[in-house]
Amino acid sequence: MTSVYLSTDPKADELLATDRFALLVGMLLDQQVPMETAFAGPQKLVERLDEFSPGALAALDEDALLAAFKLTPAVHRFPGSMATRVQSLARAIVDDYDGDTAGIWTTPGKDGGAPTGAEVLRRLKALPGFGEQKAKIFLALLGKQFGLEAAGWREAAGDYGPEDAFRSIADVVDETSLQRVRETKKAMKAAAKKAK
Alpha carbon of 174 to those of 56, 72, 103: distances in Å? Predict the structure, then answer.
């Protein structure tokens, strides 16, 4: 089993290491909250819902999912919009991949062979709530920490692909690397502000 350090909470990290839907939901939630808060979100949902799977969430009453998001501590600082996004994501996985999250990166490509990094990126970008940047970060996370061997995944992941990027959650494996990623993000924000 892959061991990860994404939420800094051992129980939440164990879920992320073994449940690909939880991992994808954590990435979806990684917006306007600290990375580790986002990746701790799936564990909160597991504890609050009867079942945590794409099929279960796709079929769940919207108010019930929102209630689970709002319980203290809240899953996200924007529980309403994020509950809607998570449910849309679950429905897309049910509709397009028969409820199998890993199908996004394991379903054969048009030629019948293993999907390339570019193809996996295209599939990720087609998911609700996944723009270009989020899709590239998740692709890098799969390649760096979850053994994805899709041809050209590093190139498809762009700036997040290099081994020593330290630009995103894809590079977080312990407290030291978490702090390095934080410092890189801070420096990038400062540079962008200065450039304005």
Answer: 32, 27, 28
CB-facing half-sphere around the CA of 18: CA atoms within 13 A: 8
Query: Measuring CA to CA, which residue among 67, 17, 18 is closest to residue 45?
Result: 67
Query: Model's pTM, two decimal places?
Result: 0.95
Please list the pLDDT of the chain residue by residue as tens digits (196 residues).
Answer: 568 999 999 999 999 999 999 999 999 999 999 999 999 999 999 999 999 999 999 999 999 999 999 999 999 999 999 999 999 999 999 999 999 999 999 999 888 999 999 999 999 999 999 999 999 999 999 999 999 999 999 999 999 999 989 999 999 999 999 999 999 989 998 888 888 8
Which is it for the CA torsion 151, 15, 130, 138, positive or negative?
negative
